[in-house]
Amino acid sequence: MDIELARTFIEIVSTGSFIRASERLNVAQTTVSARIRNLEQQLGRQLFVRHKGGASLTPAGEQFLRHAPMFVQLWQRTLHQVAVPSGRRAV
To answer: Which domains does the chain have, with CATH numbers?
Structure first.
């Protein structure tokens, strides 16, 4: 899974809206929608109920929310520990 999918999911939950999430992520709203559609296809479950005022989590979305922040944190820690220090060359 692409880490940006999880980050986008978390941002929608945080803002309550695909539009506000797109503004905070500095991407088009269509990009946010495409990322969530991709994530939902990978998981085989709908994560959000979209409505005029924003979006709310489905039971599957609530379940994914328990894991998404840990996934993002683990990825960031891994990058920090594995990334090549500046001044060094990867072989």
So the answer is: 3-80 (1.10.10.10)
Alpha carbon separation from 84 to 4, 80, 91 (Å, rounded): 21, 9, 10
**Which regions in the chain score pLDDT beneath 70?**
1, 84-91
Q: Judging by beta carbons within 10 Å of its beta carbon (0-12, 13-18, 19+), is residue 10 exposed, middle or buried? A: middle
Q: How far apart, in whole angstroms, are the C-alpha atoms of residue 91 and residue 73?
A: 27
For the chain, give the mean pLDDT.
Answer: 91
Q: What angle do CA 13, 19, 24 make, to 5 degrees?
A: 70
Gap between the Cα atoms of 21 and 40, Å rounded: 17
**Cα distance between the two ends of the chain:** 26
